[in-house]
Amino acid sequence: MLRTRYLRIVLFFARVILNVIFWDLALRRIGLRGIAEHTAQRRYTDAARRFRALAIRMGGVLIKVGQFLSARVDVLPEYVTRELADLQDEVPPEKFADIRAVLESELKGTVGEKFAALDEMPLAAASLGPAHRAQLLTGERVVVKVQRPRIERLIETDLAALRTVVSWLKRYPPIRRRADVEALLSEFSRTLWEEVDYVAEGRNAVRFKEMFADDPGVRVPRLYAELSTKRALVLEDVYFIKITDYEAIAASGVDRAEIADRLFKTYLRQIFEEGFFHADPHPGNLFVEPPSPPAPLSQGERGSVPPSLSASGREGGWGDERGQGWRLVFVDFGMVGRVAPEMKAGLRDLAVAVGTRDPAGVVQAYRRLGVLLPSADLDRLREVETAVFDRFWGKTMNELRNINRREFREMTHEFRDVLYEMPFQIPEDLIFLGRCVAILSGMCTGLNPEFNLFEGLAPFARRLLAEEAGEGLDYWLDRLIELGRRLVGLPARLDSALTKLERGEVSVVTRSSPAEARRMDRLTAAINRLVAGAIFAALLAVGAQLYLNEERTLGAIGLAGALAVLGWVVFGGR
Fold first, then answer.
1. Which terminal residue of the chain has fewer beta carbons within 10 Å of its beta carbon, N or C?
2. What's the whole-model pTM score?
3. For the chain, domain boundaries
4. Could you read off the pLDDT of 41-57 as tens digits, one per residue?
5. For residue 459, what is the enclosing H or E element?
6. CB-neighbour burial class of residue 421 (10 A; exposed 0-12, middle 13-18, buried 19+)
């Protein structure tokens, strides 16, 4: 059974990869770009639909992958994210008898001995463990999260399949140059195993509740540690309006733009101040608590809910918070990220540089974060950052998405050497944070198409600068020491330069401009493809003719040669 599961996952991704190779690489390389673009929406919509069906059917890790992709509305086409969006709610539930068996085994007692009521219909059928509404013997309303049976073996199988797919992807140079897919999978695997340890998740929930104890706009559920184990977790019931249920949000009177703004600022605090962040901000884990309680959930919405577990009048759900304004609610703390002090300092530098529109500061932040290799052309990179600020700084996410494609193409051509040759590297501890920020960006854009990243970051950057300047004597001493080091070393450097000039040891190195280098690259690539195309056509014609004339062996050799040339054009030719 597990072997069949492995093969189904691998074969699905193999089909997708082959489809991309043929339509988006081979056809474009031989001049049929128009056909590829004309069929793109249909092909990718179909792939997303098939992936959703496979994930729903198999559950496990594939649901997590789909949840990540469904939130990338800032990058992926809307027709793709729309197909994947329902994955949050379409996870098939486990048989309640199996869930009950796991729960009673973990709690060392029957459900009746531990709970006054337990809803058999899951409130959320998550990929790793369903959540069920319940009522404690003391009357509090809670949510009981129970790990799916045999989930460890399913995770092992799914990760093995993804490792196979990653081994294919890393062979393609453009992917290998732009992302360390192995490191991404390694980090994903690590956090996934942490996510099935509910004792660790309970500790994370407690830490988050302490972090936001002073913030009236954020709510984190209380942990019932005495009823929580490695495979069962009991938390306060705080399931309100799903953050992507825009109609319900509008009906509650809460402004979606305010939600996006609070969500963004909350994550700024988590990442830049606390160094500890909720790393799985998909729509199933974020809710909006309105200023007044919603109507009770109907049976059609949640199945047969015991009257004692309805949302109306529940002390544990609303208590004395009525009329205190809406709150942003976090649940599911199995996937968290930690920011080391040095990385936090680099991220703060980056936030300040972006918020104050400082290209040189951005490059220095990249260096501090270890994003650039020693051979990086820093001057050229500063030119890129300056151009990005000039063209895109201050625009809303909606404006960025609707920028004329011609402007993007012009910028891509202008800085093609940076995009394709600049030695970037993404440290492993930044990959997971990047994934979180990518999902967050998509959610903020979905809540508010006019969401402005720069306007949200600018006041935060100014506050960071004020805090640093307000550090007093230590702050200014650090900068004076740094300036002193440079001044002390300046005479020696000048003397060395003058000595070399006197000895005639100074050489002048010239190089073509990036624009000239790109023109030469395009000319070389055009000649290579012209020659390759002629060889491909000749081998294809000769091979086909020989094959039809019963010269099967020679014909097969000719056709194989044609395919080899086509492969070189797609994967190796420039």
1. N
2. 0.66
3. 2-91+156-167, 251-293+326-494, 518-572
4. 899 999 999 999 998 88
5. helix 453-469
6. middle
